[in-house]
Write a structure and sequence with these properties.
Keywords: ATP-binding, Nucleotide-binding. InterPro entries: CobQ/CobB/MinD/ParA_Nub-bd_dom, MinD_archaea, MinD_FleN, P-loop_NTPase, ParA/MinD_ATPase. It is a single chain. The protein is α/β, with parallel strands linked by helices. It has a single domain (about 5-295), classed as P-loop containing nucleotide triphosphate hydrolases (Rossmann fold). The protein is about 40% helix and about 15% strand. It has 13 helices and 8 strands. The chain has helices spanning about 20-30, 50, 60-65, 90-95, 100-110, 125-135, 145-160, 180-190, 200-210, 215, 220-235, 240-245, 280-295, and strands at about 5-10, 35-40, 75-80, 80-85, 115-120, 135-140, 165-175, 195-200. Helix 1 (about 20-30) packs across helix 11.
């Protein structure tokens, strides 16, 4: 699988594990030494902060989009190699924020981090469609349920209209004894199957604990699946990376320093393959995409 820099994690339906996928893919890569930023671009219904026990101060992505704060002010260190940019939860902040500013946010992050994961809101609106065109690749998350799969089809169509590219499908809450073929679901949607994540009670427990699953229950079936997907996305051997890093003192949980904004200097990131050209297409076509999608539904 070709390596990209910026991934949008999207779904047409809420509650399918989109934010869980965002957090765990990012954490798995950070544990391997990659520099990662996770961004809550769900401007209306933000929830990423709760998944990683992050209690940000007044500065969030909303403040960046209203030009009341810098991106650095809204960036919080979660653990070694990983930071988060949370969105605000206030309706007044949401009303003032302009999604168009996401283009500059993504451009700045891709220059600093090896991987950027955009946690995209569900549904059809300007702020949910725009990131689909800004990312280098879109990962569509769905459960095997027919309604979720049907909504995934809409997300794929919107991505195409926004000028983005779907990297593939991640199916969550799978069961080994199911007669459902996850490869067939992906084939019906016309996209590759990136991976299947088994249903795992520890996933829900990790959310309540505010700790990424790959930290909370690292040897569990779902955590193992997320690490495999992360390794495929990055084209690296995560186990080998872990062996090389063994012996270092690291804090891979999302606790401790979570509330501290990132203000320390960072090394320049490696040159990436992505140039963000999809954002221009999103700017030109996103409005018509939303109109057409709403008329089709």
């Amino acid at each position: 699988m070709s390596q990209e820099t910026v991934y949008a994690i999207a779904s047409g339906k809420g509650g399918v594990g989109k934010t869980t996928t965002t957090v765990n893919l990012g954490t798995a890569l950070a544990q391997a030494g990659e520099r990662v930023a996770v961004v809550d671009v769900d401007l209306g219904m933000a929830n990423l902060a709760g998944f990683v026990s992050l209690s940000p101060d007044a500065t969030t992505l909303h403040d960046v989009l209203t030009e009341d704060a810098s991106l650095e002010d809204a960036t919080y260190r979660l653990a070694d190699n990983i930071v988060a940019v949370p969105s605000g939860t206030g309706l007044d902040d949401y009303a003032k924020a302009s999604p168009e500013g996401l283009r500059d946010v993504v451009a700045e992050l891709r220059e600093t981090y090896d991987f950027v994961f955009l946690d995209v809101g569900a549904g059809i609106s300007h702020e949910t469609v725009l990131p689909l065109g800004l990312a280098d690749g879109v990962l569509v998350v769905s459960t095997p349920e027919p309604a979720a799969v049907q909504d995934s089809r809409k997300t794929i169509e919107l991505t195409d209209r926004a000028g983005g590219e779907v990297e593939g499908l991640i199916v969550t809450r799978t069961h080994a004894d199911s007669d459902v073929s996850y490869e067939e679901i992906a084939a019906q949607l016309g996209v590759p199957l990136i991976g299947a994540v088994p249903d795992d009670p520890a996933a829900r427990e990790s959310v309540y604990a505010g700790t990424p699953l790959v930290v909370y229950e690292p040897d569990g079936p779902a955590a193992s699946a997320y690490r495999r997907i992360a390794a495929d996305l990055a084209g690296i051997d995560l186990e080998e990376r872990a062996k090389r890093r063994r012996g270092e003192t690291t804090d891979t949980s999302a606790g401790g320093d979570a509330d501290a904004p990132v203000s320390d200097s960072r090394d320049e990131a490696d040159d990436s393959d992505g140039d963000g050209d999809g954002g221009e297409a999103a700017h030109d076509e996103v409005s018509s995409a939303i109109t057409e999608a709403e008329s089709d539904s």
